[in-house]
Design brief:
- By secondary structure, the protein is of the alpha/beta class.
- It has one domain.
- 28% of the residues lie in helices and 17% in strands.
- The strands form 2 sheets. Strands 1, 3, 5, 6, 7, 8 and 9 form a 7-stranded mixed sheet that branches. A two-stranded antiparallel ribbon has the order 2-4.
- α5 crosses α6.
- The two termini are 19 Å apart.
């Protein structure tokens, strides 16, 4: 803000613009370098020597709408899918960058899990441990949030190939969020690598341009990430 004001004043006074350091606004900075390090990674469920994405800049966009006015989406990385439908592929080295769109009416007993990188015992016992549909519906009933979107999105967040997330998964999820006129989404990681996957989904550049999102950490029994409009 202060820089913008200064630049406007300098422009009106005819003062030459100062050299400004150009920031890398890509979702994954130095993607080529990261991809090269990934190709040399030997793999392994324990992620030994895995080349995690390291971004220098973290764009911040303030929320412009109060929680009681939001249509809130839920995005879980626990690998849930409806019984009788295709499971996530947990064997591929790159990870499965697909997602499932699940109505909120689907009951816990109708869900199966394709876990990778985490122990699914807790979510199988109580889906709210990773997929807090019931808790969010309580928030809606008590006007803490405006409403919970009528479908939620499921993915298997163990996706070692970060390029797949940035170039394939993120734009597809963004399109669906825009289609449902979602103003905020709660992203819930299930494993260590899920934090990276959901972190890549969160930045504004990967969201439909008409959407503006907030990135901030919160906790809802487990680590979670909110992006908001």
């Amino acid at each position: 803000m202060l820089n913008t004001i200064r630049e406007n004043i300098e422009r009106k006074l005819g003062i030459p613009s100062r050299n400004v350091t150009t920031r890398d606004t890509a979702v994954i900075e130095n993607l080529g370098k990261i991809s090269g390090r990934y190709r040399n990674w030997r793999g392994g469920e324990q992620l030994n020597n895995y080349p995690f994405v390291e971004n220098v800049y973290a764009p911040f966009t303030p929320m412009r709408r109060a929680l009681p006015m939001l249509n809130l989406a839920l995005i879980s990385s626990a690998g849930a899918y409806i019984d009788g439908t295709t499971a996530f592929d947990t064997q591929t080295r790159d990870g499965d960058a697909s997602f499932r769109e699940i109505p909120v009416e689907v009951e816990a007993e109708d869900l199966l899990y394709a876990p990778r990188g985490y122990d699914p015992a807790a979510v199988r016992q109580d889906m709210n441990a990773q997929i807090p549909v019931e808790r969010l519906q309580e928030y809606e009933a008590n006007a803490v949030i405006g409403q919970l979107n009528n479908v939620w999105w499921s993915l298997n967040g163990y996706i070692p190939n970060a390029r797949l997330v940035a170039e394939n998964l993120a734009p597809q999820i963004a399109e669906r969020l825009a289609r449902y006129e979602v103003q905020a989404a709660l992203l819930i990681p299930a494993s260590r690598l899920c934090h990276q996957t959901l972190g890549i989904l969160a930045p504004p550049p990967m969201i439909i341009k008409s959407q503006t999102f907030l990135r901030a950490f919160t906790r809802l029994s487990i680590s979670a990430r909110i992006i908001g409009k």
